[in-house]
Amino acid sequence: LRIWLDGKPGLQQDAVVRRSLRGARGRSGMASLGEFDALIESLGQLTIEYLKSLNVGGRVRIFHDEHSGSAHLEICLDDQSWATQSAAIDKMIEIRSIFLDEIAIDYVFVDDDSCGTSAEPTETRSFVMA
Amino acid sequence: MSGTTLGAETHLSRARQHETVADALGENEWAAVPYFYAAYHIVKCALIEDPIFDDVTRLHGKHYDLVPDDRYTDRHKGRKVSSSGREWGINELVYLMYPSVVGAYERLHQASIDVRYRAGLRGATSDLRDCLTKIRDAYEQGQMRASLSTS
Q1: B107, B13 contact by CB (below 8 A)
Q2: Smallest CA–CA separation between A5 and chain B, in Å?
Q3: What is the SS3 assignment for A100?
């Protein structure tokens, strides 16, 4: 599943984020697909919310794999300066800590020419950034 | 134990070597890569030496999914496989164990990715050197002990 979430103003869903995260965390484990999907939805929305606090637009694409309980985020920032990326890294550290008990998260920032391009239609993807 | 069997001293030695190479590269963006791997080896050394991994009670105080052998992980990214338990990534362990340096560590990691997989380094190599210095100083001053860290 790939989710492109637009980080530009107008798509604030704070209440949805908190409600879905609370709901997902309130359940026992991630046995069903629905629960894992709720987590991924929460992850995406919360990431957008946190990145918005940097006052910069952007998008997040999430590749996730329920079997490995992992999610890989590709983050496209409208401002791709080091200062903005550096601030976004701090936000992602917070995001990872919030979801630490539920999902193993990693992330990369993508370049302008990779933002919004249509990737292969696979549902999950392995990333090794070793 | 997974992957590497290097001892703490070897990790430290590798860290010094990577730092020397990075310094020699100066403002060349590829300095980001050895700077990151210098940090990686310092963290690996710290994890191996950290006494919290010898005390399961304290270890579980940090996180209930941690086990003593997690000190040897060599994955950057973790995964949470229900059938075989959790496999921690170093990035997660740095956050859990040494939160005072996690920002510096993640900046180095991302900068290294920028150089290797993306359009190039966005910042200055001097910033990355500062990140490594922060991590190295924390290690040398004995601050990279999970029991002493605040999260």
Answers
A1: no
A2: 21
A3: coil
CB B120 within 8 A of CB B110: no
Query: Please, are residues B113 and B33 in contact by the beta-carbon 8 Å criterion?
Result: no
User: Which chain B residues touch A75 with a CB distance below 8 Å?
Assistant: none
Residue whose structure tokens are 């950057």:
B76
Tokens of B102: 């996690």
CB contact under 8 A, B118 and A103: no
Contacts of B121 in chain A (CB under 8 A): 82
Distance from CA of A82 to the nearest CA of B (A): 5
Cβ atoms of A43 and A99 within 8 Å: the answer is yes
Q: pTM value? A: 0.83
A104 contacts B123? CB cut-off 8 A = no
Q: What is the ipTM of this complex?
A: 0.91
Closest Cα to residue B145, out of B89, B86, B101?
A: B101
CA distance B90 to B71: 9
Return the sign of the alpha-carbon dihedral for residues B98, B103, B104, B108: positive
- Report the distance separating Cα B99 and Cα A58, nearest Å: 27
Low-confidence ranges of chain A (pLDDT < 70): 1-33, 116-130
Tell me if B118 sits within 8 A of A115, measured CB to CB.
Answer: no
Helix or strand (DSSP H, E) at A104 = strand A104-109
Who contacts A25 (Cβ-Cβ below 8 Å, separation ≥6)? A102
